[in-house]
Amino acid sequence: MAENINVGGCLPVPIFQQQLAPTAGEVGGYLPVPNVQELAAVSKDVSARYIRPERELEQVAAGEFGQIPVIDMSKLQVGDDELAKLHSACKEWGFFQVINHGVAEQVITKMAEDVQHFFSLSLEEKMEYAQLSTGIEGYGQAFVFSEKQTLDWGDMLYINATPVHERKMRFWPRNPSSFRATLDQYAAELEKAARSLLISMSRNLEVEPEKLLNLFNDGEQSLRMNYYPPCEQASKVTGVAPHADGTGLTLLTRLNQAQGLQVRKEGKWVPIDPLPGAFIVNIGDILEIITNGEYKSIEHRALVNDRNERLSIASFHDPNMDVMIEPMSDLLVKDQKKQAPNYKSISHRDYKKISRNMKLDGKDGGFITHMKI
Ligand code: OGA
Ligand code: NI
């Protein structure tokens, strides 16, 4: 059940019921925030807590950078051209789209249907899967640590899909009835696509594929399903504040036509125009560290629409919890000379604890800044 809170003089709206801020050592755990879907439904006034005055000062690129590269995954096995394109996409953009990725269209369509169905349920039903005070999983919002923090115009459902034996099924909705099976299948298919990309990346990086893949064996995969209601003041809020993903690799799908993802390039925001059926892939901070900075994790944000709701799913692919997050030793030898590491080493467990307990604050505000040597 949700309790009510008065936001900015508007009608009372329910808040996600959480009790406490995280204590040191916990992985995630955030302050309670209003449910944005309800907020959007009861009042057209947008509380000051969502307004980002800095948005007015920021520049959106007028097409000078073009679009992020499009990689045809079916060509990665057969020739060097597509591999070279992938390598430069990872180095120059940190973001690209993949087509012919091998994930069947019906897997994505079914996921889209079930996610949409879930967010259309009553608040009471969705709150059965609400986040707890101790973690990121469940229905709610992440990365809120202070009452003064500007909030994002969006709700999410977050689940950890792997390791399978650690799944917390209490956060896996039973409604729609097919949802659990759909999530399971979607996660497995995306993991396959992610591993296939990692193999191609290791060829480009000239490291043995097994060495990179082994880091990700029995790794962590999470799905973050985002629901951004329409907002009367869409140009002044964000759906997800500027951040770089603290993950290995992210594969993003948008579920409906509303646009919103923007990538930071040379100080400007480049709007991404997703191709139908494509995944938008980005290098996360962990992969930047593993590649000793050869591949870049790039700042991005999600905007919302003034008329239409927007839905997206991010699939985060992380290494095994027991590995060290550090530049791969093979990459520290180039042309038979030893290269200096550009990042420190940290256990994945500690990395997670720290990065999940920091608010989203661009790339420079992220934990990776503290990892740089
Ligand atoms: C994210 C993210 C962008 C979007 O969930 O990490 O960047 O378009 N989402 O929803
Ligand atoms: Ni992101």
TrEMBL record:
Top-level taxon in the UniProt lineage: Eukaryota
**Under the GO molecular function aspect, what terms does this record hold?**
L-ascorbic acid binding; metal ion binding; oxidoreductase activity
Classification via Pfam families: 2OG-FeII_Oxy, DIOX_N
Q: Which family does it belong to?
A: Belongs to the iron/ascorbate-dependent oxidoreductase family.
What the entry lists under InterPro entries is as follows: DIOX_N (IPR026992), IPNS-like_FE2OG_OXY (IPR044861), IPNS-like_sf (IPR027443), Oxoglu/Fe-dep_dioxygenase_dom (IPR005123), Plant_2OG-oxidoreductases (IPR050295)
Sequence ranges assigned to domain Fe2OG dioxygenase in this UniProt record: 219-319
Give start-end of the signal peptide. none
Question: Which keywords does this Swiss-Prot/TrEMBL entry list?
Answer: Iron, Metal-binding, Oxidoreductase, Vitamin C
Give the lineage: Eukaryota, Viridiplantae, Streptophyta, Embryophyta, Tracheophyta
**PROSITE patterns per UniProt:** FE2OG_OXY (PS51471)
State the organism of origin: Linum trigynum
Tell me what this protein is called: Fe2OG dioxygenase domain-containing protein
